[in-house]
Design a protein that fits this description.
alpha+beta; 3-stranded antiparallel beta sheet; 32% helix; globular
């Protein structure tokens, strides 16, 4: 079963040792582990502190911000719509997400934006390269100023801004990890389903596999979900708050970026047990409660050439 407590903790002493060693070497205050075998949960445990000051321990079902583990959840949501015939992988993303671009004076919108497909977004081949230009999900103040929207920037403001920016490469030409591409996928899901991204995922992806406590996290301190851990950054980093209601310098995890705007690429909070349920639901393609075997095969296949190919056309290692 999926109980959160281990029945034979001694049998898992080696797991405990490895996790504790890993955390100690990196000065990590708290963590959680879930172990799955044959699609069943066999062990789950919390380690260290969920809140150092209050001396609250991490539990097996404590909620953590899961950052980019949000992306597979969005990908499964998109592929489910493809299976239902509501979307095609070769559809152009901005045929669904129709927003007025904010174009800098004297510039023109990049015509290649119209060529970006759903498949490009899923594969991180849309044309944005944060190492070459920037990651707009962390450019809230600049975007609000350009778009004329109140801070912090929401996905609509971010997309309007990016529709006025040049791509870094031709869509489909190469791979470059893109938070923004998955932000756009979240809006595609909303357009097709008529539901908020979070609501659609909770109802159609998570509830059917027994996951009830996952949600989009809240940025600001004091808005944590029940059972959510406290976050600590190395060197206790601070940043300038993006939120008018909490101005000034804030601890980096609590206002220096806008978590809610990152919903589809990095906004979820979950427990290790929740993530184990999600992984188990995809583990056996022949019996997945979420996607058909053929869809899972497509999800895991490499992008089309020339992406990730050697000069002779073979896949890069």
């Amino acid at each position: 079963g999926w109980s959160a407590e281990a029945e034979q903790p001694n049998a898992f002493a080696s797991f405990d040792h490895e996790v504790e060693q890993f955390m100690a070497a990196r000065n990590i205050p708290g963590g959680a582990l879930a172990v799955v075998k044959d699609r069943r949960l066999v062990y789950a445990r919390g380690y260290g502190w969920a809140d150092r000051q209050k001396q609250l321990p991490v539990k097996a079902d404590s909620l953590f911000r899961i950052a980019s583990i949000s992306k597979p959840i969005t990908a499964v949501s998109v592929l489910r719509l493809v299976e239902q015939g509501k979307l095609k992988l070769e559809d152009h993303a901005f045929d669904f997400v129709k927003l007025s671009p904010v174009i800098p004076s004297g510039k023109q919108a990049d015509p290649r934006l119209a060529r970006i497909t759903i498949r490009h977004l899923l594969d991180h081949t849309g044309g944005w390269d944060r190492d070459q230009s920037f990651d707009p999900m962390f450019r809230s103040k600049i975007i609000c100023a350009a778009v004329g929207s109140p801070p912090p920037a929401d996905p609509t403001a971010v997309i309007r801004y990016m529709l006025g920016q040049p791509l870094d490469f031709d869509p489909g030409a190469r791979y470059a990890y893109s938070n923004f591409g998955y932000c756009v996928l979240g809006r595609v899901i909303e357009k097709i389903t008529g539901q908020r991204y979070e609501t659609y995922v909770e109802e159609k992806i998570l509830a059917p596999i027994g996951v009830k406590r996952m949600r989009i996290g809240a940025t600001l301190d004091g808005q944590q979900a029940p059972g959510e851990v406290r976050y600590y950054s190395p060197e206790e980093a601070y940043g300038e708050s993006l939120f008018p209601e909490k101005p000034g310098r804030v601890p980096w995890p609590y206002g220096a970026f806008h978590l809610e705007a990152m919903d589809a690429h990095g906004g979820w909070i979950a427990s290790a047990v929740d993530l184990a349920r999600f992984a188990a639901a995809l583990d056996d393609p022949a019996h997945s409660p979420l996607l058909k075997a053929e869809t899972l095969r497509q999800m895991y296949e490499p992008p089309a050439p020339p992406v990730s190919r050697k000069p002779d056309g073979s896949l890069q290692d």
